[in-house]
Amino acid sequence: MNERIKELSNQAYDELVNETGNIVVFDEDFQQRFAQLIVRECMRMCDCADSSYLEHGCDLEASGAAGAKELIKEWFEVEE
């Protein structure tokens, strides 16, 4: 597992502990939170690509990155 995945796993754990006040085991709630964080990270990377492409005048590529973000958001039903 790479470092960013470990960070997201820890973040999911911390968020659930803070919400529930309970120690979290690897259960369905944790899995869902962890997956949401990974999907949001993918969406964030699309935003980064979009901004970078626009900065360099690559409108078509920027449009593709924005479109990819919307598809990810719809497919996984995750809010920003």
Condensed summary:
The chain is an all-alpha fold and 80 residues long. It has helices at residues 3-20, 28-55, 59-76.
Which features would summarize this protein structure in a list?
80 residues; mainly alpha; elongated
Outline the structure in words.
The chain has 80 residues and is mainly α. The chain has one domain. It is 80% helix and 0% strand. It has three helices and no strands. The chain is elongated. It starts with a helix and ends with a helix. The model has no long low-confidence stretch (mean pLDDT 86).
Assign the structural class, choosing from mainly alpha, mainly beta, alpha/beta, alpha+beta, or little secondary structure: mainly alpha
Structural domain tally:
1
Helix content: over 70%
Q: Give the overall form.
A: elongated
From the N-terminal CA to the C-terminal CA, the straight-line distance is 24 Å
Give the integer mean of the pLDDT values: 86
Oligomer: single chain
Helical stretch tally: 3
Note the beta-strand portion: under 5%
Radius of gyration: 15 Å
Task: Map the helices and strands.
Layout: H1 3-20, H2 28-55, H3 59-76
